[in-house]
């Protein structure tokens, strides 16, 4: 039973190297390491592209990493009951590798560290990042079960260029097209991320916007904000559209067609998910390419 394993893996009052290693491994798995590292690397690279110094990029990385760790641990703690009902033995809390209190403390500690790291980038930039982290926490704490499930993603991703540029000398605001593209990328990321799990989410009572729309309509809708983000990132910056811009538009257009073609509607098909993921990656590439033009 999970309670038995929890007691042996994370029992209070016993501190051994083996137990510490098990708890550490469990926390690493529970923080959603892949998206945590990807988002941290993306925003740090965006800061470098916008002109931050090496020391500034380290501050960005520290703020984003602690914020993402707090969100990941919050997500696993809040979703414990749902994950148990779904039999998610890949989750450390469900498997009994961690106690719920341990994950809650880790989430709180990471959030506490995120505050000074964020503000070290400047008061305005730090506030923008903390609002983005708060939006992610709001999603975990219940917004994801509502028709507004897309909003925290739009707010969080839309604030990425704001966080990056406000930390530059002179604290310039980003161009509106950069903020809008970030927000659209966030909405597309939400739809793409949820797409494979819509049926399972509905079985456990999660009814965000994609779940309410259903698999078919979400599949058709997911490419739209990603394609719109790419259009903004190609035509928003000043100057002529280069070869990379036209190539990115061609790729995203072809992928959008691939999503809605017959054959991708089957529940077991991963083509829509993989195609929209590739569209998101293309938009992220454009975001990095135009980082210096944000201000």
Question: How many E-type strands?
Answer: 0
SSE sequence, one letter per element: HHHHHHHHHHHHHHHH
Q: Main sheet, how many strands, which sense, barrel?
A: none
Mean pLDDT: 85
Provide an overview of this structure.
This protein is mainly alpha-helical. It folds into 2 domains: 1-144, no CATH class; 175-295. The protein contains 16 helices and no strands. It has helices at 2-10, 17-30, 33-50, 54-78, 80-85, 92-95, 100-119, 123-140, 151-158, 160-166, 176-194, 198-203, 209-221, 223-235, 243-260, 271-289. The longest helix has 25 residues, at 54-78. The chain starts with a helix and ends in a 6-residue tail after the last helix.
Write the layout of secondary structure elements.
Elements: H1 2-10, H2 17-30, H3 33-50, H4 54-78, H5 80-85, H6 92-95, H7 100-119, H8 123-140, H9 151-158, H10 160-166, H11 176-194, H12 198-203, H13 209-221, H14 223-235, H15 243-260, H16 271-289
Helix pairs in contact: 3-4, 3-10, 3-16, 4-7, 4-8, 7-8, 8-9, 8-10, 9-11, 11-14, 11-16, 14-15, 14-16, 15-16
List keywords for this structure.
disordered N terminus, 16 helices, globular, mainly alpha, 295 residues
Q: What's the short version?
A:
This protein is an all-alpha fold. It is 74% helix and 0% strand. It has two domains: 1-144, no CATH class; 175-295.
